[in-house]
Design a protein that fits this description.
Number of helices: 12
CATH architecture of the largest domain: Alpha-Beta Complex
Number of domains: 2
Bound molecules: guanosine-5'-monophosphate, manganese (II) ion
CATH superfamily of the largest domain: inorganic pyrophosphatase (n-terminal core)
Structural class: alpha/beta
Strand order of the largest sheet: 6-7-8-9-11-10
Shape: globular
Strand content: 15-25%
Number of strands: 11
Length: 323
């Protein structure tokens, strides 16, 4: 799965791993970096290795070098694996990609790749159904598998609100629900499971850091390393905060700049026709989806934000024309 895995990266990987295990394969799930605290309930730490943990790195390398098949879920460019990308690239095993991001690299032998899928977890659901001849969900999926896949679909659709929600999304979820898992509990575990510090941090960001530029229908927030330290914020605690910018009336693009470990991580969100994927890939070494993308910068926070502000006029027409 990709670095800083979200619930779709983790959920699709764990769901696919469960299926392969059921089929008698020996499976190891590897994340390049730590996952957010609110996803810990999904993970049996004995089964998921984290490459950036010094104590697990050698084991990850060995597993990848010795694998007979490497499944790459929820990413389609190897740079999304951080340092692990090189290890995967050099490993002799054939690669199988399952992903829904635009602009893939063609590093995999097999690609289950569909940008119309709302989530990689939806692709895993469909693949497993096809492999099992469309048997009833209750015969193929168990409750943990259904929860993993549901978590991925639920989060990548913004709880079934985004433009990527289709009839197939609801049909997949309806089918998974036949296993009898508690979907409301999954929602609570992910969204209503934050440490108090996250809510206080969110309060700080919204009251002190949110800037709105009505002329460009844009909102943005900048968080420095010092501020993150002040709130003792871990990786997961900034996740999703960028979305709040879109709640401001008339705003159609929201951006968040986060300084962490000397690099600037940028998150973009938009609505409708405005493509933040194009903006991220043209200007910030990034990519993603039309309405949710990200990128990185090695310049200082101020330089990065100044650059962002300097390119806004070139997008003015596109921003104004969003319905
Ligand atoms: P987030 O803002 O949640 O970190 O990222 C939103 C989406 O943007 C992700 O689902 C992913 O598709 C994409 N994304 C984030 N960072 C990067 C990046 O550095 N490179 C590329 N290609 N896509 C990214
Ligand atoms: Mn995804």
């Amino acid at each position: 799965m990709h670095r800083d895995p979200d619930a779709d990266a983790l959920g699709s990987s764990l769901g696919w791993a469960s299926y392969l295990s059921k089929k008698g394969h020996e499976v190891t799930v590897i994340s390049p970096t730590e996952y957010a605290a609110n996803l810990r309930w999904m993970v049996n730490p004995d089964l998921v290795l984290v490459y950036e943990k010094a104590s697990e790195q050698a084991k990850c390398r060995k597993k990848i070098q010795e694998a007979t098949l490497i499944c790459c879920l929820d990413f389609s460019v190897l740079s999304r694996l951080k340092d692990l990308g090189k290890v995967v690239q050099e490993a002799p095993a054939p690669k199988m990609m399952i992903d829904h991001h635009l602009e893939p690299e063609y590093f995999a032998t097999w690609m289950i790749w569909d940008t119309n899928a709302a989530a990689t977890a939806q692709l895993v659901y469909q693949l497993v159904k096809e492999l099992e001849d469309y048997a009833p969900a209750t015969e193929i999926f168990d409750v943990p598998m259904a929860e993993y896949l549901y978590a991925g679909i639920m989060t990548d659709t913004g709880s079934f609100r985004h433009a990527n929600v289709t009839a197939d999304v609801h049909l997949a979820v309806a089918d998974l629900m036949r296993t009898g898992f508690d979907s409301s509990r999954v929602h609570r575990l992910i969204y209503d499971n934050a440490p108090l510090s996250r809510l206080q941090f969110l309060g700080y960001v919204l009251s002190q850091k949110l800037v709105v530029l009505p002329k460009y229908r844009t909102a943005y927030m900048v968080l420095t390393e010092a501020e993150l330290q002040r709130f003792n914020s871990s990786t997961g605690e900034t996740e999703g905060i960028v979305n709040y910018g879109l709640q401001v009336e008339n705003v159609v693009m929201s951006a968040m700049f986060i300084e962490r470990k000397g690099e600037i991580k940028i998150s973009f969100r938009s609505v409708g026709t405005f493509s933040v994927r194009d903006l991220a890939s043209t200007h910030f070494n990034g990519g993603g989806h039309k309405n949710a993308s990200g990128g990185r910068s090695e310049q200082s926070v101020n330089e990065t934000v100044d650059y962002f502000l300097s390119i806004l006029p070139t997008y003015e027409q596109a921003l104004l024309s969003v319905d």
